[in-house]
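Running this now, will post back.
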Amino acid sequence: MLRRAYGIARSLVMYYPPGKYGRMRRLYGAFLRPGDLAFDIGAHVGNRVRAWRSLGARIVAVEPQPDCLRVLRLFFGRDPGVTIVPAAVGAEPGHARLAVSSSTPTVSSMSAEWRRTVVADERFARIRWDRSLEVAVTTLDELIAVHGEPAFCKIDVEGFEVEVLRGLSRPLRALSYEYLPPAHEAALAALELVERLGAAAGGYVYNYSPIETMRYASDRWLSAEELVRVLERFRPLGRSGDVYARLAVGPARA
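Update: finished.
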């Protein structure tokens, strides 16, 4: 229990630091307007939820970890603009096993392959997934059927991003997914899926934000090929971050 309490406290310190809130509002303000719907897939302790609510967005926060769900309900449980979904997201609805790291819940994952990949990196050498939980699994298509199509969807699920995207059958206006250098190939597989989704809607353009900086690596939006070159540049530095994608057609907000 002490290890779990430490893990949640660590997440709160990591994701609610002073000085970053304004940058977060500016970045996401390019995607979200008052009344827009946003999906937070892997909501964790809700720092994106807080920023998006300040922009006037309605939010579906999806999170399978019980300890994180307690934080989300404490912070947002009485907010009618936030719907908390206690589940994971994948390619098909059902149930699956979630490997939980009590001391570092931010790296809890449903992907055994991702865990095998990242432990080879020295920064993950001391990570231990010390318990396993059975969790409900929904899909992005199911969430859209219930709640509507989001203006923006954030996907941060520790190596399960490809499975999440496989459960989506339509292009979204804008989305983001996590990039981790030790799992470079998985990020490219996710990019390929996003490209396929966008092909019928004029295609996506991309940018990259290094870990929690809330700033883009490029001063312009990039093609998929240009994004890959950016990721290759960051890969040897070992810095994770988020890939952002928005449809290239229509009025640009960013």
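The mean pLDDT is 89. More later if anyone needs it.
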